[in-house]
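Dear V.,

Thank you for sending over the compound details. I've combined the ligand you provided, pyridoxal-5'-phosphate, with the protein sequence from our construct and run the structure prediction for the complex. I'm sharing the raw inputs here so there's no ambiguity about protonation or stereochemistry in the SMILES, which I know was a concern on your side last time.
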Amino acid sequence: MDNILLMLPGPTTVAPRVLKAISDSIVNHRSAIFGEIFTETTKLMSEVFQTKNQSYLLTGSGTASMEAAIANVLNPKDKILNVVGGKFGQRFMQIANAMGGNTQELAIKWGDAVSPEQVKEVLDKDEDIKAITVVHNETSTGVTAPIEEIGKVMKNYDALYIVDAISSVGGDRVEVDKYGIDICITGSQKCLAAPPGMAAITLTDDAWKVIDKVDSKAYYLDMKKYRKTGAGTPPETPYTPSVSMIYGLAEALKIIKEEGLENRVIRHEKAAKTVKNAVKSLNLELFPKEEISSSTVTAVKMPEGVTDSDFRGTMRNKYKVELAGGQDHLKGNIFRIGHMGNISYKELAITFSAMEMTLKGLGLDIEMGASLAAVNESYL
Ligand SMILES: Cc1ncc(COP(=O)(O)O)c(C=O)c1O
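Below is the predicted structure of the protein with pyridoxal-5'-phosphate bound, written out as structure tokens.
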């Protein structure tokens, strides 16, 4: 297989230790030995969510946890406020619509961030809103939402506060208890740097109170079943979980603990700052304003006269560095550099070296070495 450097907002490169862990022998998922692994993994997951509450592992990608977050708390026609400033905010609303919810869209221009005041304004006008969804790190636009400040607003309302932190948990600050988040979700293949295939969800007592009253149509993702089997001896999941991916997730979470969550966040912030400086040194333009730009993925406007297929195609095929493109109407207009998971100096030096050669090769007037100097400056 080509040894491609993944500079993607997921999936991210997985440490050899994690790959070794997933190759371990399969055990019975209804056994004491698996119960121990499962308990340890959920505990580590709660530590990374920074919550005292139980976390639950779902076999499925991040979208499974989005669906679990909505399907369990919404009766048909219940009002839900969806903050939509990109692809994933939109997905939350699509899921809520699919569940028969009465969705209220708080539309944010793609590339901008929602403000706590905007949320407050809507909630003040409509006391029937039962829940609100916010995407912390809108991976499609590279924008971070102020979830701590929105949390302060949410303390004054009964509505449940649901946060998609799929591309931020383990890379940016997501302090679930401190921010007052009722339901927080994440996925394995982003900042946690585990293989794709697992999702996690954590819920407060307030969320459970709602769940216990809702006549949910969820079956595979019925959280009441996860609560029941998770509390058994040994703790289990209702259906067969991906045993191997749980081994991998457990190892990835141990790595996070060893690094230290705060150190890891600081490492991501440094990578993000470096990427932004390097991008600007090549006279490329950031898509969102720098103040709201993500710590885990940077969206950059495609330079004039350069096509996505030429740019990302050359990066990938000639230099073996894979970047992400834009989604929906941003396709071809932006590219995205993922710097989540295990990214540090080496990966950034290779990426910008390749980017300079690619852009030069495509006829842009690039000052060779400028972005490498920005990277070196950061890590000197
Ligand atoms: C913020 C966010 N939410 C949800 C998802 C969906 O996750 P998945 O593709 O794992 O289903 C992604 C994946 O890119 C994401 O970045």
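A first observation: Residues 5-10+261-379 form a domain with the Aspartate Aminotransferase, domain 1 fold (CATH 3.90.1150.10).

Warm regards,
I. M.
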